[in-house]
Amino acid sequence: MQIVREVAQELGFEPHFTLIGMRDPASPTEEASDLQVFDVTSGSLINPRGLWACIRAQDCVIDIGAGDSFAEIYGAKRFTYLCTSKLMTVMADKPLLLAPQTIGPFTSPLYKGLARIALNRAVSVLARDRQSLSAAQSICPGGCNGLATDVAFALPYAPWSGAARARPAIGINVSGLLYRDAQAGVNRFGLDYDYVELTQSLIRKMLDDKGAEVHLIAHVRSPETPEDDDSTVCDEIARQYPDTIKAPHFAGPSEAKSYMSGLDLVVGARMHACIGAFSAGVPVIPIAYSRKFDGLFGTLGYGRLVRAQGMGTDEALGYILGSFDARAEIKQEIADAASRVDSFLSVYRAELRKLFGMIGG
């Protein structure tokens, strides 16, 4: 929204936003005078006065697909919503811009067919990594496809200004999704590492061998979907390891980024926690569970991550511990890669200018 505001104001007008999404009561929502919120429910998808009426009231729709949800890996329910909102937009003859996001994978003919309609009718499609761009081009080779990067790199924050710490401060962003799956013996993402064992071993090694402060950072707070909630898992781990520090519940993403800016290393299994650390200049090791991690960071020329396939638990642990010792080197690698972020986001800004030119004259 901040990027959109900046481009709109540059062109001489003030935007008004309707934030359309499936809201989680535990997730913070930005409050602003130029913002109203439309909560999508199952009923609103079929009620003519619901989502359809909301979309028809807009001048354009900028659809970010929850960043990574325009794909089939999260199941039919989420894909149905993501596709329905796009198809309603084109049916209402409203300009649709797909903001930088992961696109695909799509393997099912049904998913591919529905995705093709949305991609073909959008005025612009921006992938946030080369793999997604390739997926979009393979489904819709004649579409207006471009390469940008994740908008969260531009998230404002207040750099940490506290006193110097006596010990290195390591943030571990624990994914409730991966942790609960591993506890249940489920491996829906085909991981070569055991996420619970990796997390537990990493905490012990950081506390005992490296003498570090270990900060447990929850990214997803979702009491209504406990199988995806990071916070309750962090609570359990904090009770198991009382020497760890449980990060507070943040009022919003900027506060989380500000907190992480004071850490010496972040190991994260949620991509936007990793983006927050990276864009604050903090050495970060993403623990990937899908191609979106490698695609996003690889597009920026940053290859420090534990991939979903190719590393067992012991190898992944050794890699992270080695990264702890190489923090200064990684910090420089991040600075080099961060210089590419602005050029990729400029692609998004250019497409927004075109969009606003279409609707505003």
UniProtKB/TrEMBL annotation:
Pfam families: PS_pyruv_trans
One GO MF term attached to the UniProt entry: transferase activity
InterPro entries the record matches: Polysacch_pyruvyl_Trfase
Ranges for domain Polysaccharide pyruvyl transferase: 52-290
Keywords associated with the record: Transferase
PANTHER family, sorted: COLANIC ACID BIOSYNTHESIS PROTEIN WCAK
Name of the protein: Polysaccharide pyruvyl transferase family protein
